[in-house]
Amino acid sequence: MANFLPETPRTDVGDATRFTQHDLSFSREESFQAPAGRDELFKKMSGARTPRNPLATMRNPNAKNEFTPMLKSATANRTRQVSGLLPGKMTTPAALKNGFRMSDSPLPEASSLDVQSSSFDHSIDGRTQLPDPNSSEMSTPMALPRRADGELDMGNGNGNVLTLREQEARLEQIDKENFGLKLKIHFLEENLKKMGPEFNVRTMEENVNLKSEKVTMSRDIKQYSKDLKAAERELENYKQQLRDYAEKVKKRHADAGMCEEMDELRRLAEERAAEIERLEDKLEEVRSAEDELEKVSAELENAQAECARRDQLLDEHEDQIEELENKLKNSQGSSSADIEEKDRQLREQAERIADLERSERELRQQADRVIELEQENRQLSEQVAEIATLEEQNRRLQKEADRVIDLERQLHSATNTRDDDAAEKERQLQARIMQIEEQNEKIEDLEEQLRSIERTKEAEIEKLQDKLDAAANGNDQEIRELEQQLDEAERELEAAETQKRHEVALAEERMRTLEREKDADIKELQRRMHTIQTEKDAELDALHERVQLAESKGDNQVQLARQSAHDAQQKVVDVTREKGVEIELLQSRVDAAESRADELEDYRRQFQDSMQQINRLQRDASEYEQQLQQLRQAVIQKDRDLGELNTLRRERDDATQEIQGLRSTLTSKGSQSDALNKAMQERDTLSRELNDLRRERDNLSSKMADKDAQVDRLNKGNNDRDALVAALRQERDDVEREMRNLRLTMSSKDTQIEALQKVTRERDALSRDLSSLQSTLQAREHDVTAFQKKIDAQEEALDELRRLKNDLNDRTRELEMVRKTVSERDAELDAMRNHADEPDTQIDVMQDLVRKRDDELEALREEINAQRSQVEAIQHLAEERLEALEELRDSANRQKQEYEDELEVLQEDADEVLEEKASLEEKITVLESMLREKENQVSSAQSESRTSQREEKAALENKLYDLEARLREKDSQHRKIQNEMKATQRDERTSLEREVRDLESRLREKESQLRLLQASAKAVQQKAQHEAYDLDAQSQALEKRHVKEINGLAKQIQFLRARCARAESFRQALGYQKSFFLMQIQTYNECNQEDLNLISQMGITPDITVHERRPKLKSAALVVIAALRMQKLSEGWAQNRKIHEQLKQKLESMRRLSGKRPGAGSRIAR
């Protein structure tokens, strides 16, 4: 098989030697077919690498140390296989080797001739099949194994075939396997350790507890399942009864009474369903008891959070200390003036800080001593905590008992109308439980006292630590350094204030001189500008006048005018040059004045800077004052700390007394623990009794339900009573069977105890049945008495009706009497009216009488109407009462008959129960003797447990004595430390008081100096502010005036330019006209001369007559054009005229203000 080398054909010819030949196809096939997912193949192979043999044979040791030597050998073998230490040839698969046996069935080896046999039809372990040999002679080379077909499976261990990435993946897989093996070995070692005797004992205890809990839970679950099954049966019975009643109703056409019974049955069914739901809710409540454990864990987490919070508080205190040190360093750096003095002060402060650190170390040593005391106190608290854990266990048990009580109360509320005897036993149990609760409350009070004492001690220790930290931080050397810094800062303040005052005075003088010079220069410049402007205006006016004169004189004087104009222009140029020089001088002066103004602004800025520095110094002084106040507060705080230390000493003495009291309470705690053990035993017995009572109560509830059903049946008829008697007999037979079973299960003591419990339960159940029957009898009797009372009440109501009838008769009589009186009064009135003829006095009297009688009549009528309404109401009530009495009589007679029938049946049941009770009491006596034996055994076990508890108590007392001795030693050490602290604190306090007094005196002096300086600085500042305000106002006024003057100058310049432009245009137009007319005249003269010459040559004399010129359209058009042009020119000039008028008004106002002559302005106004 290993030497077989198949060939792959080029054609699909097939093998004609076999019968399994299918339809042949001689189609030519390609030697290579592209795979289906070629693109995906290339994507997968994009990052792959070809294997390299040299890397596979390298011996690379593992970097990590293995967990066990066994794993080392395993991993070494694995790495040898992976890294290629084994022979690197291609090994043959196991299935192709000689002697390979298939896993499914022992088939014969496959031969090379029959390759299509059953052994090669299906691949083994998911490997690919060999290619089929075919009849083709032409062979092609074998295809390489494919990764997708599993040929290069990493499980084969062929490292030379794997790529580097696959090798890395394989190594990662091996590392994961090694980690899993390490974990397994670790857990196996833990299991080996736990196989010791201690762990065995613990596991046994845990198993016992788990089994006991399992048994109790299984019993409870069985009981609940029984209850549920009974409830389901009752539901089925009720449903069946409902169906029967429905059928009966359909058959008999039931009346309203049957419908009421159906409704009652439905209501009972709903109540039973509600009881089932309540039982399920109780089961869920029992399961939700684990939430309390989570609450306890949450409380533990809160305690851990409180510890972390305390650590954070300590860290915050340390951060505050560091911040205070940084503040001291910053204040030292900001308050120093010279760098050398700063360095010296920093060195001194470093030395002082070193001293402070030494003192801090000493205080920390003292704090470590306090911490040691705390640790010892914690040990004591741990011992108390152990007691508290025991008490917590007791509390948990108590909580479980409370839950049981709650369940009992809920069940009792559901069945309180039917089981009175069970309620009495539950009251007894509750009384016992209340006693246990009182004992637990006493224990809780003691625990709370212990916790309060521990809290007070922890608070005292924390206060001591805080005080030690405060004493370490607030030392005298820091106060002295701050005082020196204050003195230096005050000196610097005084020097800076004197310098600033001198500088301010100099700056003020310079500002005043500069302002004076500036004002004088500005006035001179204004004067010169005004004179220059007037001179220019006068010269321009003269030139214009000369030009106009020259133009008016004619052509002969044009040259003279030009010459004079040229001379005038030359003079203007010279004057402008001179004025330009003067303007440059004035500009230089203006620049100098502006530079002085800039200097003034610089001085103002310097003054403002100096004021800001003064403010800064004042702030520094206020900060130093605050620091002094803080120091005073620190001194006061130290005094308070001393007082608190004294109070702490007193509290410590009180705490020692409380510790002694706690020791006495611990001694009493031992007796209480014994009482607790007894209470625990009693509670166990009570829990058992509670379980028994539950079962009995459930049985009673089922029995009472049956009895209720039986009573209902009795109400229905005598036939149902026979069925009830049969059911009771069946129950008696069941009880007898249970008694026989109890006799059979009396072999062992445990079974005897259980039988005794069952018998006692049955006895109690029977007694409860008797009591319930008696209670039902009593209830029926009470009902009878209640009905009798109702009958009596109805009879009393009848008597009342009779009385009402009598009252009605009396009222009718009264009405008749009233009617008679009314008729009599009417007669009197008539008589009075008949006697109306008497004097006026009698008439008045009679009118008064008539009015009174009318009022009385109206009152009587109202009474009559009210009585009528009352009579009608009473009659209505009487009728209703009579109807109700009849109904009550009928119902009372019916219920009386029913109760008599029930009493007969219940009496028979009571007789039968009494017989059963006598037989069961005999059995109970036997079982009680067996119980006494068990109680003797339990008492012997309790005595042994008491001896063990006494031994533990003696050991705890010895530990307490040792702890007391340690506490005494620590108290003596603490007293020594306190004495030393007192002495140092006294010295520090005296020195601090002296220094504070000196500082206060210095502060008073400095404060007085500061007040003087502040007053002087305020005065200087106010003066400077007023002067600055005045300067600003003046400068603003000057600026406004300057702006207005510039605007006026601009307007003047604008007007002058417009005027000059107008004059120039006029001149140009005149010159052009003049030249045009001269040229025209010249042409006319020349033409005339030529004409005259021609005429003279021709000998013709001209006609002397003058011909008039005719008006033409062209002349009219030219006139219109000229008018339009003149209109436009006048409109343009009107704006300039407005400016001119404004300037004239401004000049007149200026002249009025200045009182100057209007000589210069008249020229401009022209």
From TrEMBL:
Keyword Cytoplasm attached: yes
Chief place of localization: cytoplasm
Gene Ontology MF annotations: GTPase activator activity
Key words of the record: Coiled coil, Cytoplasm, Cytoskeleton, Phosphoprotein
Recorded superkingdom: Eukaryota
Pericentrin/AKAP-450 centrosomal targeting domain location: 1059-1133
Listed Basic and acidic residues bias regions: 680-718
Cellular component per GO, a single term: cytoplasm
Domain annotation Centrosomin N-terminal motif: ranges: 163-236
Chain intervals with Polar residues compositional bias: 664-675, 937-946
Compartment(s) of residence: Cytoplasm, Cytoskeleton, Microtubule organizing center
Bilayer-crossing regions: none
Disordered: annotated segments: 96-142, 326-346, 664-718, 933-954, 970-991
Biological process according to GO: endocytosis
InterPro entries referenced in this protein's UniProt entry, alphabetically: Cnn_1N (IPR012943), PACT_domain (IPR019528), Rabaptin (IPR003914)
Pfam families: Cnn_1N (PF07989), PACT_coil_coil (PF10495)
Gene3D superfamilies: 1.10.287.1490, 6.10.250.3110
Protein name, as recorded: Uncharacterized protein
